[in-house]
Design goal:
The chain has 2 helices and 21 strands. By secondary structure, the chain is mainly β. The chain has a 21-stranded mixed beta sheet that branches. The protein is elongated, with a radius of gyration of 25 Å.
Length: about 325
């Protein structure tokens, strides 16, 4: 009788709305739903979902707003220990983050035991915006397929668009503590494209990374290299970057910090770069070193180069700064 009652409730719109309202009340979270249509047994549509975290005097609160949320899934797959979602989509996702905290973050994701799996055939978000204090990041489109089994999350055909930049990713994450992330990332723009194979290990507060990188641009020979570094929730340190290009080598190191204001520091050196491979009208060999820095909107650049171009000696010193 209980099973029959539950089946009848999830098979009707009114019963589904009642079950959802009871679940929200039981959760104790500040979640507001508007325009709920459909049935829990197969397809559910929500006009607007709004979530607010608990407020803090120091940090404020995090808010998440989703427009035109649609969920299509196969309830019968539960008998096979599967949560199978064919479509999860939204017209817009807006996230407003609370101020950063000095507290550390512990990764805690429950493993799916007993052979259970969660699969999403197609997740699609038409537009996404991320607000952090005064900074705003907007993405044009996000889509992916995912499968979660045990402690392993596999993501395939993931893509996002940011203005003229398109990114595609395939990878696996072992959601343990420490975690392990292995992925292949492709970046494409009208003027260039890049590919990297990346592996990250550790915890969100202390992790290491290493990978390979290749960059192709129509007017230049391909750049191929490798990198390694470490980081935390608020900072990424690139310890080694080395690449072969123009018959010479590039080496660099850098720092990216986003905990408060965005801060970037990058040092790079080029050795024995053959300019003939770049432009046949300017044969020669060049060495250079440079430092680039950015703090908020302010930027600085120091560059020095020496060598020979078209059999003439070359020596350049350049300094630039903007506020």
């Amino acid at each position: 009788t209980l099973l029959l009652t539950a089946t009848l409730m999830v098979s009707s719109e009114s019963g589904s709305r009642w079950l959802i309202s009871q679940a929200l009340e039981f959760s104790g979270q500040d979640i507001e739903l508007r325009g709920v249509e459909g049935r829990l047994i197969d397809e559910l549509r929500i006009e607007k979902l709004l979530y607010r975290s608990a407020a803090s005097k120091q940090r404020g609160r995090t808010e998440v707003q989703i427009q035109a949320l649609r969920l299509v899934w196969d309830a019968a797959a539960l008998w096979q220990q599967q949560i199978r979602v064919s479509t999860l989509s939204a017209a817009a996702l807006d996230i407003s983050l609370a101020a950063p905290s000095d507290a550390s973050f512990e990764l805690s994701v429950p493993a799916l035991g007993g052979g259970w799996t969660i699969g999403v055939d197609q997740l699609n978000i038409d537009a996404m915006s991320l607000r952090k204090q005064q900074a705003l990041t907007q993405l044009d489109e996000i889509s992916l397929s995912a499968l979660y089994q045990g402690e392993r999350l596999s993501v395939s055909d993931a893509s996002l668009r940011l203005q003229m930049l398109e990114a595609r990713l395939d990878g696996n994450v072992v959601l343990a503590n420490p975690f392990n992330f292995d992925a292949k990332l492709n970046l494409k723009q009208p003027a260039w494209q890049a590919q990297t194979r990346l592996q990250v290990q550790g915890t969100p507060n202390e992790y290491t990374l290493e990978g390979t990188l290749s960059i192709a641009k129509p007017s230049l020979p391909e750049l191929a290299g490798h990198y390694s570094g470490n980081g935390s929730l608020g900072e990424l340190r690139l310890q080694v970057f080395q690449a072969d290009t123009l018959a010479g080598t590039l080496q660099g190191s850098g720092l990216l910090n986003w905990k408060n204001a965005l801060r970037l520091e990058f040092d790079v050196q080029g050795r024995d770069l053959q300019t003939t491979d770049w432009n046949a009208d300017f044969p020669g060999k060049v060495n250079f070193s440079g430092q680039f820095g950015m703090l908020g909107q302010a930027m600085s650049l120091n560059l020095s180069a020496d060598g020979r171009l078209r059999d003439y000696p070359l020596e350049v010193q350049l300094r630039a700064k903007s506020n």
